[in-house]
Design brief:
Helix content: over 70%
Largest sheet: none
Shape: rod-shaped
Number of helices: 7
Protein name: PspA/IM30 family protein
Family: Belongs to the PspA/Vipp/IM30 family.
Number of domains: 2
Strand content: under 5%
Structural class: mainly alpha
Oligomer: single chain
Radius of gyration: 53 Å
Organism: Paenibacillus validus
InterPro entries: PspA_VIPP1
Keywords: Coiled coil
């Protein structure tokens, strides 16, 4: 039947082959599942109609069978009462109901076989849908991981390139130049000290000279005592 065509297509074709042609695997997987859900709903409607036909024929053949049994009982009572004509007419009507029973029973058997077949196909569709839904979760996780890796790779591709290395070299040279200029400026400042600065420096004592003079005196005293 046409309603099962998409299921056959999906089960016969590799899902990975379909994904190769998709721009976005996640969107395509979701679309595949939506299509299958629509097919399942369509199949459920077809199965429900077939089940309704099955029940209709069942009701009709059961009613016919009931009339067959009823007319036979009535024919027997009429015969017991000595009314063969009434018994004959009851049996004639029984025969007509028997023919209807045979026809409706055959129709019921056919309808039931069709309904059972459709039930089985519907169960297969739902089972396949469940499997593909689980597979979709795995494929989506793989797709997201692949996207993340691709983004990292793209980010890393520009990381540490020649341009960046050359830029760092230029900045290193710039820093060295600045340091050299600062040192030169410091030396120039030392050469340009004023006379007052030099005289002030002579008067400064950090205490070392005092300690040195004390040690000299101590050493001289020691030699005299010897």
């Amino acid at each position: 039947m046409g309603i099962f065509k998409r299921l056959r297509d999906l089960t016969m074709a590799s899902i990975n082959d379909l994904l190769d042609k998709a721009e976005d695997p996640v969107k395509m997987l979701n679309q595949f599942l939506r299509d299958m859900e629509e097919d399942i709903l369509e199949a459920e409607t077809a199965v429900a109609k077939q089940i309704a036909i099955e029940k209709k024929f069942k009701q009709q053949y059961e009613e016919a069978l009931e009339m067959v049994q009823k007319r036979e009982e009535q024919a027997l009572k009429a015969l017991e009462s000595g009314n063969e004509d009434l018994a004959r007419r009851a049996l004639q009507d029984k025969k007509e109901h028997q023919a209807r029973y045979d026809e409706m029973k055959a129709q019921f058997d056919t309808a039931k076989a069709n309904a059972d077949r459709l039930r089985g196909q519907l169960a297969e569709m739902k089972d396949e849908f469940g499997k593909l839904k689980s597979k979709k979760e795995v494929l989506v996780a793989r797709a997201e991981a692949a996207k993340a890796q691709k983004q990292i790779n793209q980010a890393m591709s520009g990381f540490g390139t020649d341009n960046a290395a050359k830029g760092f070299d230029r900045m290193s040279e710039k820093v060295l130049q600045l340091e050299a200029e600062a040192e030169a400026s410091n030396e120039l400042r030392g050469k340009n000290k004023s006379l007052d600065d030099e005289l002030d420096a002579l008067g400064k004592n950090d205490g070392v000279e005092d300690e040195l003079a004390a040690l000299r005196a101590k050493l001289a005293a020691k030699k005299q005592s010897e």
